[in-house]
Automatic annotation (TrEMBL):
Residues 758-1036 form the Autotransporter domain. Coiled coil: none annotated. InterPro entries: Autotransporte_beta (IPR005546), Autotransporte_beta_dom_sf (IPR036709), OM_autotransptr_brl_dom (IPR006315), T5SS_PEPC_rpt (IPR030895). One of its GO terms (cellular component) is outer membrane. The lineage of its organism: Bacteria, Pseudomonadati, Pseudomonadota, Gammaproteobacteria, Enterobacterales. It holds the Pfam family Autotransporter. Residues 1-33 form the signal peptide. SUPFAM superfamilies: Autotransporter. This is Autotransporter domain-containing protein. NCBIfam families: autotrans_barl, rpt_T5SS_PEPC. Keywords: Signal.
């Protein structure tokens, strides 16, 4: 290397360039230090413009530069490559660039780089002050998008333009406002350099002495404290007030894959004092997000390699947020023998850390030295001697361990130390470490805030110190059953508080070393092992589990429920101490029966290893989810005390039909079920409901099927009992008879439609198909019924003489019946036969017939009521017989139009066989019975003759009529449960009166064949039916 003496500065003729913030290196001699201010005389806003400074020349080394006020303009400083050589860094450059200095002044400086800048290392040396003494300053530094092709021999020359400063101060002094933004955009030149930071400073101060400062690091980087690898103590202060109490406010935002390294001197015994919020200052470090570069995810990150304090001194506030996949690393100071990497809340100050979002992480390590690949495990202190909080939520992670530095020399050709975090051995977390410390760990949200999804805390154990330490579980139900596995240790008797606020939290390991208190005010805490200390439950909180807890007190709104959450299996929860229940608290008891046991009535049990004080409080029973089966005269053991039982529970609210009484002895409490005097038939119930309810009451002591009675008297309300009666009633068996009687008309209509043909033929054959969709209206007593049916009839007839014609017919149909409101349905197959005769005297005709139909039912019912789920099926037969006649008279109105009034009558009798349903305890048996019905119909038919093209003839016709039903139109069924006496259930009513509407067209294809289609509708006072028919007639 060639050394040249020039102006008392050593010059190195190699790749380093220094663009001093005090002078542009030139051949001019060095002058004495002076204060030079910016006046932009040339008007070009260029930093290196000689006419833009007050001395009309390039500033010299050691000159202080002042950009007091740039007006509405921005001073531009370009770090372009120039053919200069740099002075060495061993000079003493006590110069400062002030941007926005002095009350009322405002200045802006923009520093840019070009592609050529990346061929060298560019330094801005000295110090920089942005916004001071009441002024407002803004500095922007933008890192150029790097292209590897711009580097000469990139494997040998790993450099990038960067700024080296002694001190960077942002927002210093009362009413000052400073903003520095470091921005990058994409791939960084740091991949080809030894030090990856675009800005390196020995000391960094943001928002101090009454000023407001903001540092934004967006996709760029800053290194604090490591410049020169010295052993000096360096300082990092964010939001620091004066000793006299003038507060400062500082904020650092790291995002877009940006990085801040606060390293001190990890290569030596030197340390750095890193503080966020001190001397009544307010400091905030926000780290957020990540970016993907070249397929690799780069986290926004901050690293404190020599310890960190957050919230120091009374009135100070410090905060850190690690969000959306960002990273925070803290390593214990080499002078801290406790290996605590961060103190949150110190000397009565207030500090907080939030780690939230998937892949967000705080990594805490112990003493870390370079070079070293193995280091010491670190710990964390929340609320060391002030107020501190740590919130871990929404998938965020806090992990303790150690960090080693791996030398990548063999990979890159130069010494580059890669930090490697190892949490195979975990450190500890201290809460409220000293007497005046208040430390809180929040899993999810903080107390008093909205619950959040859980995060993860990876520590060896949580130690509650001499102060006030607490853990708050306030997580959403979406977190599921959150299992907390970390050991808990009280450093002194009674220290530490566990607060269950929301969600379900489970402790499944031995925590008997904990001697503090547990407060449950919301959600559920499940203790499946041992938990020491005392317990209080209030508001909307629940204690569950099968483990052992200490002395427990329940206040208004508190609930205790042995066993697992959402489980109804009876379990035992042990209280190793006294139990106290106050008015408004509750004990939820799971109950079941096991006939294999000597005592078949098994329930939850509170085992109290002490005294039980019952100052009120209620008992809620449950079985099979939200339902409890109360068996009259059953007795359940729910509480046992090794000491004594004092006081009583509040009156237990059971159901409208049973009372639950308490039995006490000196050390036990029992529940006894007693049937009260309330009838199952309650005011407002329908006839069917009272019929089945009364029958169940009458058979209460019937040993054949006592379970039905127990299920009904256990219903939680009268309305639930009504719904149970509706589903149990078997109404489908009665309502199906209404559909059967109604459907008898299809046989009659097929015959009558055939016999309306004109006389004159000697005989013929015919076919008749149909489909129909009908419904019956329900009422307070019965449910709606829907019926769909389709079928076919065929027949032959023969003229006996000019007056009389006789014939026979047969057919098949299938009907589907839906009793949806009763969770029931039926399918019915019908097989038909019949015979008929017709007499014709001029315009008067008379025809009569008889029919017989055999039916086969398949019914399906489901029961879904509290305490009983069942499916019931049955197959049984029925039969319908009918006799019918019709008379009509044709009246010609014109040569083509005829009116034909008619009257008909039908007697129908249906017979239903007995049956037995298959299923569980709700199965029914039905008795056989017979139902009779008589129908009359009067109406008028209008016909018009048509001649079609081609010579065929056709008839358009329509019918209106009125049908009336006699006898009782409400069918019923006689049913009984297995082992019970019978009860009567009514079905859906037939319509008493029905309007009949028909319309159709017949077409004669030949003299012998006719085809036709028609619509058939019936609209009644309790039913409607609409159908379509098609038919074919062939004359012999």
């Amino acid at each position: 290397m060639e050394n040249v003496k020039k102006s008392n500065i050593r010059i190195f003729k190699k790749n380093l360039i220094l663009l001093s913030i005090l002078s542009v290196v030139s051949t001019a001699p060095v002058v004495q230090a002076a204060s030079i201010y910016w006046d932009n005389a040339s008007g070009n806003n260029q930093f290196f413009g000689q006419q833009n400074w007050s001395n009309n020349s390039t500033p010299a080394l050691n000159d202080d530069l002042y950009i007091y006020d740039s007006g509405n303009q921005t001073v531009e400083l370009s770090l372009a490559a120039v053919d200069y050589y740099s002075p060495s860094l061993d000079g003493d450059y006590n110069h400062t660039l002030f941007v926005g200095e002095g009350s009322g002044n405002s200045a802006s400086l923009k520093i840019t780089s070009t592609p050529d800048s990346y061929q060298y290392t560019t330094y801005l040396s000295g110090s920089m002050s942005v916004g001071s003494n009441g002024g407002k300053g803004v500095v922007e530094y933008h890192d150029y998008i790097f292209d590897a092709s711009n580097i000469e021999n990139p494997e040998e020359n790993r450099f990038t333009p960067k700024i080296h400063l002694e001190t960077l101060s942002i927002g210093s002094g009362l009413n000052s406002d400073g903003l520095v933004s470091l921005t990058g955009s994409g791939k960084s030149a740091s991949e080809y350099m030894m030090s990856s930071s675009a800005l390196t400073v020995k000391d960094l101060h943001v928002g101090t002495d009454g000023g407001k400062g903001v540092l934004n690091v967006d996709g760029s980087s800053i290194d604090v404290g490591s410049m020169g690898y010295t052993e000096d103590q360096r300082t990092f202060s964010l939001g620091q007030g004066t000793d006299s109490g003038i507060a400062g406010t500082g904020t650092i935002n790291i995002l877009g894959g940006g990085k801040m390294m606060v390293s001190g001197s990890a290569y030596s015994e030197g340390v750095i004092s890193a503080v966020i919020g001190k001397n009544q200052g307010n400091g905030a470090l926000n780290i957020s997000g990540s970016v993907v570069r070249n397929g690799e995810t780069i986290q926004s990150q901050a690293v404190f390699a020599q310890g960190l304090e957050v919230g120091v001194n009374s009135g100070s506030i410090g905060s850190i947020s690690v969000l959306n996949g960002a990273s925070l690393s803290t390593m214990a100071s080499n002078t801290d023998e406790s290996n605590i990497s961060a103190y949150i809340g110190v000397d009565n100050g207030s500090g907080s850390v939030l780690v939230s979002g998937e892949n967000s992480i705080w990594k805490a390590s112990g003493h870390t030295y370079i070079p070293s690949e193995t280091n010491e495990v670190g710990h964390l202190s929340i609320g060391e001697s002030g107020t501190g909080s740590l919130t871990v939520a929404n998938g965020g992670v806090v992990s303790t361990g150690s960090t080693g530095y791996f030398n990548r020399h063999n990979e890159t050709g130069y010494s580059s130390y890669e930090p490697v975090f190892d949490n195979s051995i975990l450190g500890d977390l201290y809460l409220g470490n000293q007497v005046n410390g208040v430390g809180t760990l929040n899993i999810g949200g903080a107390e008093g805030h909205a619950p959040q999804m859980v995060g993860s805390v990876e520590v060896n154990k949580i130690i509650f110190g001499a102060g006030d330490g607490s853990i708050v579980f306030n997580h959403t139900d979406l977190s599921g059953n959150y299992t907390f596995t970390t050991d808990l240790v009280s450093s002194a008797e009674g220290k530490g508080t566990i607060k269950q606020v929301n969600g379900i939290t489970e402790f499944d390991t031995d925590r008997s070393q904990f001697s503090g208190k547990t407060e449950i005010t919301g959600g559920t805490l499940v203790v499946s092992n041992a938990l020491g200390g005392s317990m209080s439950i209030a508001e909307r909180g629940t204690l569950a589990g099968t483990g052992m807890v200490g002395t427990t007190t329940l206040y208004n709104g508190g609930n205790i429920s042995p066993g697992a959450v959402f489980s109804t299996s009876p379990q035992t929860l042990t209280i190793n101490g006294d139990l106290t229940m106050h008015s408004g608290s509750n004990y939820t008891v799971n109950m079941t029966t096991d006939s294999a046991l000597d005592n078949p009535y098994v329930s939850d049990l509170l085992q109290v290893n002490g005294n039980a004080y019952l100052y009120g409080g209620g008992v809620t029973t449950q079985q099979d989810g939200d339902f409890t089966l109360y068996i009259p005269d059953s007795r359940w053991h729910v509480l046992s005390a090794t000491g004594s039982v004092t006081g009583q529970f509040d009156k237990l609210v059971a159901t409208p039909f049973v009372n639950i009484n308490y039995e006490y002895d000196p050390q036990n409490v029992y529940l006894v079920v007693v049937r009260n005097d309330e009838d199952l038939c309650q005011p407002g119930m329908s006839g069917n409901e009272c019929n089945i309810g009364g029958n169940i009451d009458e058979n209460a002591n019937n040993g054949g099927n006592g379970d039905i009675h127990d299920v009904i008297v256990s219903q939680p309300s009268v309305e639930a009992a009504r719904e149970s009666f509706k589903q149990l009633s078997g109404e489908i068996h009665a309502s199906a008879k209404s559909a059967l009687l109604e459907d008898s008309r299809f046989l009659r209509e097929a015959v009558n439609n055939r016999l309306r043909e004109e006389s004159g033929s000697e005989g013929g054959a015919w076919a008749h198909t149909y489909g129909s969709w009908g419904s019956f209206n329900g009422n307070n007593n019965v449910a709606d019924l829907k019926r769909n049916i389709g079928g076919v009839f065929i027949g032959v007839d023969q003229q006996i003489n000019p007056t009389w014609t006789a014939g026979v017919m047969t057919g098949y149909s299938r009907a589907s019946i839906d009793n949806k409101q009763r969770r029931a349905s039926a399918d019915r197959d019908d097989y038909h036969v019949g015979a008929y005769v017709k007499g014709q005297w001029d315009n008067l005709s008379l025809h009569t017939g008889l029919g017989q139909t055999w039916h086969q039912y398949s019914t399906d019912r489901s029961i879904n009521i509290p305490g009983l789920q069942d499916r019931l099926t049955a197959d049984y037969g029925a039969r319908t017989s009918q006799l019918f006649a019709e008379s009509r008279y044709q009246i010609p109105l014109t040569s083509t139009i005829t009116m034909e009034p008619f009257v008909d009558g039908a007697y129908v009798q249906s017979y239903t066989q007995s049956f037995n349903e298959s299923g569980g305890i709700a199965r029914l048996s039905g008795a056989s019975d017979t139902t009779d019905m008589f129908f009359t119909t009067i109406g008028n038919r209008f016909t018009q003759q048509l001649t079609l093209e081609g010579g065929q003839t056709a008839k358009l016709w329509g019918t209106v009529g009125w049908r009336h039903a006699y006898n009782e139109v409400t069918p019923d069924a006689n049913l009984n449960f297995a082992g019970y006496s019978s009860f009567n259930i009514e079905g859906t009513q037939l319509s008493k009166d029905v309007a009949i509407l028909e319309a159709g067209i017949d077409v004669s294809l030949t003299k012998e064949t006719t085809v036709g289609v028609m619509y058939n509708g019936q609209i009644g006072d309790n039913s409607t039916d609409h159908g379509a028919k098609a038919y074919f007639n062939w004359r012999f």
